[in-house]
Amino acid sequence: MDEQVVSRRSALIGGAGPFRMLVDFLSRSGYDTRRREPGVLDFTFGDPHEMQLPAYVEALREAALPQDELWFAYKQSEQPAQEAAAASLRRVVPLPWTGDDLRMTTGGFGAITVTMKALADPGDEVVYALPPWFLYEALALEAGLVPVKVAAIQPSFDLDLEAIAAVLTPRTRIVVVNTPNNPSGRIYPPEMLTALADLLEEASTRFGRRIWIVSDEPYNRIVFDGNTFHSPAQFYPHTVICYSYGKTLLAPGQRVGYVAVPPGVPGHDELLDAIDTMQIAGGWLFPNAVMQYAVPDLEALSLDLAGLTAKRDRLVGALRELGYEVSSPEGTFYLWPRSPIPDDEAFVAALSRRGVLVMPGALFETPGWFRICLTATAESIEAALPHFADVLDDVAAAAATPTAATDGQAEMSPLGTSL
């Protein structure tokens, strides 16, 4: 008798490297308890570290007050939310979007999930660049797709177009583009997106099958220094945009986002119908009523971009003075410094022992780097700087005496937190 309890699919996803590291971190490292300890400075996830904007809370409060007996009835995509989102998208991605081009989703996460399943069949290939958002692989595997990974060019972290072209096959259905990029903060310029569009058009013609871009754009409004964001949809019409309000509003626990299919693209209506189907079949994957009612008001709100810029500039400048190699991100709310030692997990562990929590590049399948989240407070940044300085001495001493280990170093979680 076969005593297998869990499905092979769940075992495959659960064993995937980045996903396994993330789950171990969340479930067995004690992270949630440790980040609340006095003196611990948390720079891991894009969570809020200060109370939410009063206007955000008021928008949800107003949206929760029923106006008729169907206020909390089953919802798909609510037209007022679609129209408000389309009006905002027109300002960011200058195409003639209407509400009918969008479907509301449970954040960007849900948007990518249903888009992959609407576009691709099991066995199709999904290409994406490293470092990636650490759940692309899990989403692809869950959909029965084959992840194909291409390293970005270091240290610029531009897309390696030649490498992408080299991995395209007749089975390629999706290329994921994440700009502004998490974790590098890179905004891909028009010439790069134009070249990507040209190679995908050529490959689609050669293989006799359309390759689509899934453009993961949750940070497309978090842009620094007057930089201009450009979406792949402006250069390649066969692009589906996935957006999340959780980044701009710094409220990732309130799940709302959307999928947008460019107007006029061949297969427009068919693809949106397929997305509707996947949302229902996947377990009614629509945002709840309150979040959709609030979208028109939420569109007028944003995190403090000036304050975020100040934190970025302070931390980039200070780390450079200490001797770290770090670029100033063009967008997102992350820094992506190079680890001062090749073993980024050991470096992150050394920081963790000092009470500073960051993420290693290994979690993003790019060893030798680490990620710092700027949603922490300015006070936390100031408190962390002496530790960033002192840990350089720690890792230098450890490198000089590699066999000297303390009990605290005996077992570490994947993100360097003591178990």
Overview of this protein structure:
Its EC number is 2.6.1.-. Its cofactor is pyridoxal 5'-phosphate. InterPro entries: Aminotransferase_I/II_large (IPR004839), NHTrfase_class1_PyrdxlP-BS (IPR004838), PyrdxlP-dep_Trfase (IPR015424), PyrdxlP-dep_Trfase_major (IPR015421). Belongs to the class-I pyridoxal-phosphate-dependent aminotransferase family. Keywords: Aminotransferase, Transferase. The two termini are 37 Å apart. Helix 7 links the parallel strand 3 and strand 4. The chain is globular and about 60 Å long. The strands form three sheets. Strands 2-8-7-6-5-3-4 form a seven-stranded mixed beta sheet, with helices on both faces. Strands 9-12-11 form a three-stranded antiparallel beta sheet, covered by helices on one side. It has two domains: 145 residues, Aspartate Aminotransferase, domain 1, CATH 3.90.1150.10; 229 residues, Aspartate Aminotransferase, domain 2 (3-Layer(aba) Sandwich), CATH 3.40.640. Helix 1 runs antiparallel to helix 7, helix 4 crosses helix 12 and helix 6 crosses helix 11. Helices cover 41% and strands 12% of the residues. The chain is an alpha/beta fold and 419 residues long.
Mean pLDDT metric: 92
Helix content: 40-55%
Which class best fits the helix and strand makeup? Answer: alpha/beta
**Number of β-strand runs:** 12
Which features would summarize this protein structure in a list?
Aspartate Aminotransferase, domain 2; pyridoxal phosphate binding; seven-stranded mixed sheet; NHTrfase_class1_PyrdxlP-BS; 41% helix; globular; single chain; 2 domains; disordered C terminus; 419 residues; alpha/beta; three-stranded antiparallel sheet; Aspartate Aminotransferase, domain 1
